[in-house]
Specification:
The protein has five helices and 16 strands. It is α+β, with helices and mostly antiparallel strands. A hairpin with a 2-residue loop joins strand 10 and strand 11. Helix 1 crosses helix 3. The radius of gyration is 22 Å and the shape is globular.
């Protein structure tokens, strides 16, 4: 059996330790994420055509679609799409037996293509060290995974581009609605344990911007978007999940848009400090925020 000289053994040991330290340092550099903020929402509904028509009747925008699992998946653009197909959007897909709701929210990540492996490794290590157990990694397209409450999050490269297979849809006429959308404003997440959720989301997004009572706010200045965490009191509407979302818009006539929403079948329409809150035809809570 070959015996290593002591000096050589120490050199190898030191080299391995340095390499491990460099690996951990590289992982640390990718977290918190370098993200502009919220990009899109995925909505799952029983009737995708009805939901697409609802939002296209409300928004002055364009609709795209792609074949998906034997049907169509629709993309309501939340702004103008440039030549590189960069745009924020609402993705509307069929529930296919699942409950109606917001499937996931997406935050894009700068350098995702080259750093995704390091990001997964860093998340795996830091999530375990924080006491959350084993992190399984991505379960879907791009980076798709759950937080401790089962809320689904997606990472995509920044800037995001509309799905290549999506093409303009003739389901409805474009640019017929009263409200011009400018992108997402926020998502509000109901969590079961605010302290636990705060520790977990800090791993991804760094220090929160504010903490007041049962509400935590993460701000993303580059996109003027926000993630809100709330631990609601026990009762109706307290189930963990994406409770509501906000969309930035150009200014609009509150009374006129409120009447339109009522005609379209929306419920609980309220003017709150200049923003218009409502529940859409699928029971999803939305707020329009003129800027």
């Amino acid at each position: 059996m070959r015996l290593w000289p002591r000096r050589r053994f120490l050199q190898l040991s030191i080299g391995a330790a340095l390499l491990k330290g460099q690996t951990l340092a590289a992982q640390a550099q990718v977290l918190p994420l370098d993200t502009p903020g919220l990009d899109h929402l995925d909505i799952i509904v029983p009737d995708v055509e009805a939901s697409a028509r609802f939002y296209m009747s409300l928004f002055n925008t364009r609709l795209h679609a792609q074949p998906f699992r034997g049907g169509q998946r629709y993309f309501v653009l939340l702004g103008e799409m440039n030549a590189r197909r960069e745009v924020r959007y609402l993705a509307i897909g069929a529930a296919n037996g699942r409950g109606t709701g917001i499937g996931h929210f997406c935050t894009t990540v700068r350098g995702w293509r080259e750093n995704s492996a390091a990001i997964w490794a860093a998340m795996t290590r830091q999530i375990a060290e924080a006491g959350f157990g084993s992190f399984p990694g991505s379960t879907g397209f791009g980076g798709l995974f759950d937080d401790p409450d089962g809320i689904e999050i997606q990472f995509l490269p920044s800037p995001d581009t509309l799905v290549t297979a999506a093409v303009p849809s003739d389901l409805v006429l474009s640019n017929q609605g009263l409200v011009r959308p400018l992108g997402l404003d926020h998502v509000l997440l109901n969590v079961s344990d605010l302290d636990q959720a705060l520790r977990w989301y800090r791993i991804l997004y760094g220090q929160e911007s504010s903490l007041s009572g049962n509400l935590v706010r993460f701000d993303f200045p580059d996109s003027l978007t926000h993630i809100l965490l709330r631990e609601p009191a026990y009762g109706y509407g307290s189930t963990p999940g994406i409770a509501s979302f906000g969309i930035k818009t150009l200014p609009f006539d509150q009374e006129q848009v409120g009447s339109l929403l009522a005609e379209l079948g929306a419920a609980d329409i309220n003017d709150v400090n200049g923003s218009l809150e409502f529940v859409d035809i699928d029971g999803l809570s939305v707020v329009l925020i003129p800027t």
